[in-house]
Amino acid sequence: MAIYTCGHTTPDSDSICSAISLGYLLNKIGREAIPARQGVVSPETQFILDRFGFEAPILKTEFAGEEIFITDYSDRGQAPKDIDEATIVGIVDHHKLGDITTSTPLECWIRPVGCTNTIVKEMYDFHQVEIPANIAGIMMCAILSDTVIFKSPTCTDADIKAVRELAAIAGVEDFGSVGMEMFKVKSAVEGTPVRDLILRDYKPFDMHGKDVGIGQLEVIDLAIFDSIKDELQADLDKLREENNLHTACLLLTDIMKEGSEVLVSSEDSSIFEKAFDVKLENGKVWLDGCLSRKKQVIPFLQPAFA
User: Fold this and answer.
1) Can you identify the CATH homologous superfamily of domain 3-184?
2) Would you say 205 and 75 are in contact if contact means Cβ atoms under 8 Å apart?
3) Computed over its alpha carbons, how large is the radius of gyration of the chain?
4) Which EC number applies (predicted)?
């Protein structure tokens, strides 16, 4: 039986690229694997796949009776709905340990680094498997994306080392310029429905029994949202109501100014205000220096719900 390598719902570049890079590795060490994805490919991810000559992994949302190696998450809320009917053979992730449990032992590669593909690179090194140039290219791009070209507080020396080594394998001389090309693609939001923007990089969380959704859009100039910010706020309210969420947030992250304007829709906005010691104005607030949902939002917001 083939193992499916698959990331979280509403997949980002790390989720898609780690499914591909991990799938190749497993096949090389004699474990038949098929890369998969749970959702649509974002414009940034499509740019990466096109640049290095890849098709998107197969779209698959049901895994009952299958074996799955999870990439880039361990929270049940980001898993397929039938995850309990699948056999999880492994997890490779760089986030907090989630609430997925298994009935059998499994392989776990979980590290406090900036990107899942940094860990997959460690797996290649461990198994002494050579990385093809095109695989190295997508892994490099995923790390640059997740670490915001090394600006994110989640970035570690291991991420930087991995990018330099992968760039050399991929034949990329200026990985910084590739990173900026990716973020220019991310910044092209004109004509995209507001709901698609909110869900482009969106993750659901269970915070002490309260359902919370957090999306993030990373761009090189926050001004591109000026004409649609009210629409984003209104649709965030609709999303919260439709999904019976306690709180829905959208981070509008300016990678050049190195901060985020956060749009908040909540049954009780005082929880958010308490978590970050701020006062919302019309459901919005600027968080200076905030680039990472994983490290600078969730660790503060989750305890506030306790």
Assistant:
1) inorganic pyrophosphatase (n-terminal core) (3.90.1640.10)
2) yes
3) 19
4) 3.6.1.1
